[in-house]
Design goal:
Blueprint (H helix, E strand, L loop, with lengths): L1 H8 L8 H11 L22 H11 L3 H15 L6 H9 L5 H8 L8 H10 L11 E4 H8 L3 H13 L3 E5 L2 E4 L5 H25 L1 H13 L2 H11 L1 H8 L8 H15 L4 E3 H12 L5 H20 L3 E7 L4 E7 L32 H17 L6 H9 L5 H12 L1 H22 L16 E2 L8 H9 L6 H6 L1 H9 L8 H9 L20 E3 L6 H16 L8 H33 L5 E2 L2 H5 L1 H6 L4 H19 L3 H17 L4 H4 L14 H4 L15 E3 L11 H6 L12 H19 L4 H11 L13 H10 L4 H15 L2 H12 L7 H15 L1 H14 L5 H15 L3 H10 L4
Antiparallel strand pairs: 1-3, 2-3, 4-6, 5-6, 7-9, 8-10
The chain binds a DNA duplex through helix 9 and helix 16.
Keywords: Activator, Cell cycle, DNA-binding, Nucleus, Repressor, Transcription, Transcription regulation
Subcellular location: Nucleus
GO molecular function, one term: RNA polymerase II cis-regulatory region sequence-specific DNA binding
DNA sequence: CGATCCCGCCACATT
DNA sequence: AATGTGGCGGGATCG
């Protein structure tokens, strides 16, 4: 045979392929064949063939080429479509030298035949997926290499990836132990958790970027300490490794890269990750500057990894079509839910050790990350509460203008920042693109759900990016923000473009009636508050300006210089919080989203939030906060842009922005408690701290909400305000005020209930959700009351109002509910508006309390007034309580505390 | 022409 | 120094 081969080969052209044959030939000469393949290849033959060849020879001595060939054939065939594979075989046997060319060609393995993926399949074919626990299969690199007829180097490529998933472990030189897929799910789970921590944030960054940014920045700069923390996210592995394992060398980057890559999938809502995004993320982490060459190299490596993962049936190649064109991407087709897995993203303590088996380097990156993340999340959850870092620091430090800070941060953090930025930018773009684009992929759905897709979960956050970016840059976003939530998101998304214009319009955009379509809201970012101007009209314009300001504020915290610190913190917190929450939530969201569709594109996340479900989901606990946030974001977005994506993205920003606002006083707090407008119900849930005032559409009046939120922590302002529950807020009723009550109308929603998202928007806006914030006090109640009076109009309301008043106290929910009721009947007026109003109303109430409860309860059943009462009670308590969040939750339930 | 990615040089680690 | 590992990127193929 050998001879034949030679003959064939020789005559023709020495093809690379040939080597194998040659080796075989060599094989003939046993001498050389040392077991370990030496580079010797040189040997006699001209062909340098690889040493492995010799080995192969030896190995295969028993079953020489034939096998290989056969194997190859077999393997290939299935794999490849071509017939060629066959031919070669035939050739072998039949062939004559003559066949030569054709045959050769045929024989010569086409590139595909030599692909790493194919090789990996062959490799895997040799071992049982689920080996008996008892038996241990050892893998000899040399042996395998020779058997498979490849260089050892290639085997390393495969083994490294397999090792990253713990399918094999390195036991000794040249020796690997085959574990099979028994622990695959566990490993994936671990990776997912770790990924959420790490990437969650990153992603978040991307998606939420702003938050993250600020978050990061803030922390880092502010505190150096944090740095390490931050790092975790990115670097995680190395550090640990280094210390721990002392991993030397660069080490196993392929292994680590593989894990990270897998994490991205697991964290991605859509389960689709485009190569470029992955590369960017990985590069980023890596640190360095990513130059083009690096990027290229990364991509190459990713292809290597992807080939192996594909062979494992964990991913498949797909294409995501974006505006720009189609981009290569991979979709996760492996297990998604891991039973035991904790769902909660946040909490995990992944650290423990994700990878059971890892021996070597396996330092799990996770750990580190985890840490950092956790923190984040927490923060996120409550701005106030946890603010720890950010706020505190900030406070102390300088709070001057937010902008400055940011910038400064940026500068300082610089790298991170820059990276972040870049990434964010990238993400955005992608997102935007994605959004727009549809996924074409075979697999994917073309669906494009707008929202959905982004490959990474990140996307959703887009807003963040912008935010961040903008901020840094300057911020411009604002406008969008003004647009309000929806807009903001969009902005964030910027790339998407979404709605940039939207701001005001956003509502319209949606088309969703709900919002008031045109109602413009004004949001005042002031700190806590938002002002919504409800005018239906478009006051937007006017509003806009403010918004802008807000925006600016956002970035900065402009408002009060004083507060600045606080603000900053807030901002940071907020950001963080939002993000964090987001992260946490995201997972869920993602999941959901994911579930929903594959959309390739990013963005998916938020949407859900809109829906009540989210709120529900979130509910609870601390998590909730996070969730809220997300929801929040979403909500915001939703209003305007129905598109989830957009919304999502933007949202965050908005909130942030809002926070900034200066206004106030309260504002500061505001920041903490962002108030969002939630158009949607969803928003309800979370909303942060701000209070909105919505005017009804028609109404000119504007309402203001002040955030109560955090009183405690928060800022002084709050305190003042809050002191009692309500406090701070001021409402301006005007007709508008009425609206608030109207807000209740939100109730309207009732019908819809929370739901409606689309529509909600308006409502949403109303929502504010301060609750989340914390605020504590819901406060508003008073407002409500106030309203009532004014509102007389709504007689119907009246009854409620009374309630309200009482209610007011109660947390948001109650309010909302109440309000709703009232409204509905009464208010009236603008139905649409009403919806919006509702929220507002709620908002007024108390942002804080509202939050959690709100979400769910609210929307869903506005009706139950009873609650309100309860609320009142609660409120009282609440007020006391600082922790808004909890309360809120409680509130919702009833009286929590 | 961009997407893939094979191939193997070469550096670093380990023995 | 030999050998094990594996980063890395040129450049060939593929589509």
């Amino acid at each position: 045979e050998n001879i034949f081969d030679r003959s064939r080969m020789a005559p023709k052209t020495p093809i690379k392929n040939e080597p194998v044959d040659l080796s075989k030939q060599k094989g003939c000469t046993p001498e050389r064949s040392p077991i370990t393949p030496v580079k010797l290849a040189d040997r006699p033959q001209p062909d340098p063939w690889t040493p492995t060849a010799n080995l192969k020879m030896l190995v295969s001595a028993a079953s020489p080429d034939m096998r290989d060939r056969e194997k190859k054939k077999e393997l290939f065939r299935p794999i490849e479509n071509n017939e060629q594979s066959n031919t070669p075989d035939s050739l072998q046997y039949d062939m004559v030298d003559d066949n030569t060319v054709d045959e050769f060609e045929k024989q010569r393995p086409s590139r595909k035949q030599k692909s790493l993926g194919l090789l990996c399949q062959k490799f895997l074919a040799r071992y049982p997926s689920y080996p008996l626990s008892t038996e241990k299969t050892t893998i000899s690199l040399d042996e395998v290499a020779s058997i498979l007829g490849v260089e050892r180097r290639r085997i390393y490529d495969i083994v490294n990836v397999l090792e990253s998933l713990h399918l094999v472990s390195h036991v000794a030189k040249n020796q690997y132990c085959w574990h099979g897929r028994h622990n695959l799910n566990q490993t994936l789970k671990t990776l997912q958790e770790a990924g959420e921590l790490q990437y969650g944030e990153l992603m978040a960054l991307f998606q939420h970027k702003e938050q993250d940014w600020e978050y990061k920045f803030g922390e880092q700069k502010k505190e150096t300490i944090p740095e390490s923390q931050d790092r975790p996210l990115l670097d995680f592995p190395e550090p640990d490794c280094t210390s721990a394992s002392a991993s030397s060398r660069k080490d196993k980057s392929l292994r680590i890269m593989s894990q990270k890559f897998v994490m991205l999938f697991l964290v991605s809502k859509t389960k689709i990750v485009t190569l470029d995004i992955a590369a960017k993320i990985l590069i980023e982490e890596t640190q360095d500057t990513a130059d083009h060459s690096k990027f290229k190299t990364k991509v190459r490596r990713l292809y290597d990894i992807a080939n192996v993962l594909t062979s494992l049936d964990l991913i498949k190649k797909v294409h995501v079509t974006e505006e720009r064109g189609r981009k290569p991407a991979f979709k996760w087709i492996g297990p998604v839910d891991f039973p035991g897995k904790t769902d909660e993203p946040k909490g995990h303590s992944p650290m423990s050790n994700p990878l059971p088996g890892m021996q070597r380097g396996a330092c799990a990156p996770y750990q580190i990350q985890a840490t950092g993340k956790q923190r984040f999340t927490r923060h996120a959850s409550f701005n106030v509460a946890q603010p720890c870092e950010g706020s505190r620091r900030k406070v102390s430090s300088e709070p001057s203008s937010p902008h400055q800070k940011r910038q400064a941060c940026i500068v300082n953090s610089d790298e991170h920042c820059s990276k972040m930025i870049n990434l964010a930018a990238v993400c955005r773009q992608k997102i935007a693109e994605d959004t727009r684009t549809c996924a074409t992929e075979t697999t994917l759905n073309p669906g494009k759900n707008p929202g959905t897709t982004s490959p990474l979960s990140f996307l959703p956050v887009p807003g963040d990016f912008d935010f961040c970016v903008n901020t840094l840059p300057q911020a411009v976003l604002p406008v969008v923000q003004a647009g309000v939530p929806s807009i903001s998101l969009q902005n964030g998304v910027s790339s998407q473009t979404l709605h940039s214009s939207m701001p005001a319009t956003s509502k319209t955009e949606n088309g969703k009636p709900t919002l008031l379509p045109n109602q413009p809201f004004l949001c005042f970012p002031s700190s806590s508050l938002f002002m919504l101007c409800g005018d239906l009209q478009e006051n937007n314009l006017r509003e806009t300006p403010p918004t802008t300001e807000d925006v600016g504020n956002k970035s900065a915290e402009a408002p009060a210089a004083v507060l600045p610190a606080a603000c900053q913190k807030h901002s940071s917190h907020k950001c963080a919080s939002p993000s964090a929450p987001a992260d946490d939530e995201e997972p869920a969201a993602k999941r959901q989203a994911m579930e929903q569709g594959d959309v390739p594109l990013s963005l998916v996340v938020p949407k859900k939030s809109f829906e009540s479900p989210k709120a529900e989901s979130t509910p609870g606990s601390g998590c909730t906060s996070a969730v809220h946030l997300e929801a929040f974001h979403l909500d915001l977005a939703s209003p305007t842009a129905p598109l989830a994506a957009d919304k999502d993205c933007t949202r965050p920003l908005d909130s942030q922005e809002q926070e900034k606002c200066p206004q106030n006083k309260d504002l500061d707090e505001p920041s903490p408690g962002k108030e969002h407008i939630c158009k949607e119900n969803a928003s309800q849930p979370f909303l942060p701290q701000y209070i909105y005032v919505q005017p009804t559409a028609g109404l000119s009046s504007c309402n203001f909400l002040f955030p109560a939120k955090q009183a405690p922590s928060a800022i002084s302002l709050t305190a003042s305000q809050l002191p009692s529950l309500s406090v701070p807020c001021v409402m301006v009723p005007s007709a508008a005020l009425a609206s608030f009550p109207l807000v209740c109308s939100a109730t309207i929603a009732s019908p819809v209930s929370p739901v409606s998202d689309g529509s909600f928007t308006a409502a949403a806006s109303m929502n504010f959700s301060m609750s989340s914030l914390a605020s504590t006090t819901p406060v508003f109640v008073g407002t409500t009351a106030m309203v009532a009076p004014k509102v007389p109009p709504a007689p119907s309301v009246d009854h409620q109002q009374p309630t309200h008043s009482t209610l007011h106290l109660s947390p948001v929910l109650a309010r909302s509910c109440t309000a709703v009721k009232l409204d509905s009947p009464v208010c009236m007026g603008h139905p649409v508006t009403l919806l919006k109003l509702q929220q507002p109303s709620s908002a007024p109430l108390t942002p804080k309390s509202i939050r959690p409860a709100c979400h769910e309860a609210f929307f869903k059943t506005p009706g139950s007034l009873g609650d309100p009462l309860a609320w009142k009670k609660n409120e009282g308590t609440q007020t006391r309580n600082a922790s808004s969040v909890q309360r809120r939750l409680e509130i919702s339930s009833t009286s929590p505390d």
